Structures are given as C-alpha cells and as structure tokens.
Amino acid sequence: MLTINNVALDFARLPEGASLPASAVGSAFMHDPIERHDGKLIVTLRLPHAADATESARFPVDIVDPAEGPVQLPGQDVRDAEPAATGVIDWSQVITAEQKAADLLEQQRLEAVAEIARRRVQADQAIAPLQDAVDLDEATEVEAALLKDWKRYRVALNRVLEQPGYPVEIDWPALPA
C-alpha cells in the first residue's frame, strides 16, 4: 500500500515480474511504470518542488526498502496521517511477465524474419547472374560450383525457421566463399 497525498494505492495485486503503466494509476505523481521484481515494488514518483528547491529535492536519491509509515522526501514536510481515500488503479493495463516474454519472443521472431529476408536478397542477387551463365552454357567450373554453394546457402536460410532454438538462438549458415 502506498499513500500519496492521502490517496491510498494498493499494489498487492501486481504479480511478480509484471508492470503497470503510470497512466493506469490515478495519480499525477506516478512517473514510470510500476513494477514488481524479486518481491519488491518499484515506483518512480514525480515530486513537486519550488523553482529554488535544493539540489537534494530536485535530484533525490532512491529510497530503498523504506520502513512502514511516513517517508521523509527531500524538500517535503511529513504531515500527520489523515484518513486516506482509495485510489483508482486500472488493472486491465497490467503487463504480466508472461506477456513481456511473449512480446520479446515475437520481437526476436520479427528480427529473425527480417534478417532471413535480407540474406535471401543477397543470395538471390548472387545467384541470378551465375544462373544466367549456367543457362547459357557459358559458366566456368568456378561459377557453376559457386552457383551450387549459393543455392545451398539459400536452402539453409529457408531451414533456419526449423532450428530448435529459433528465434532465440539461430545458427546462421555461412556465406559462400
């Protein structure tokens, strides 16, 4: 439970590894997403202060594992506790650890698909003139061998998606020499 300006915000429902956008919390003092890591709640607050506030008020140090009760913030006065109103939290915006992992996996998949496409273009550009030389019976032995190497490379690229670690771990085929 975190009470800010007599508004109580209960983050007990935030699961381990999850985060909640600051905009999901009905408080103008929330700055960054609220997260829970290793059982600890991580909250970044926007603190109001005067233009001539001390440096410690403008650039406060992190408060880690504060004791129960009021916390003295730089440049702020601790007031006697008043009955707190319950704050509003939009729990539909929670981003779970599972969602984060799925998003990361999807990002890795998209990056792998883009890299496959980039390498495929490179292979296609190398294969086209070599294939022309073979089709016209004008290819040297070196060109014919290089064409086979590039085609093997292109086949290996098509099989990247079948690798056991895909898309997290990819054993990229070597470019033909």
TrEMBL record:
UniProt-listed InterPro entries: Phage_T4_Gp38_tail_assem (IPR003458)
Q: What is this protein called?
A: Tail fiber assembly protein
The protein's organism comes out as: Diploscapter pachys
Q: What is the lineage of its organism?
A: Eukaryota, Metazoa, Ecdysozoa, Nematoda, Chromadorea
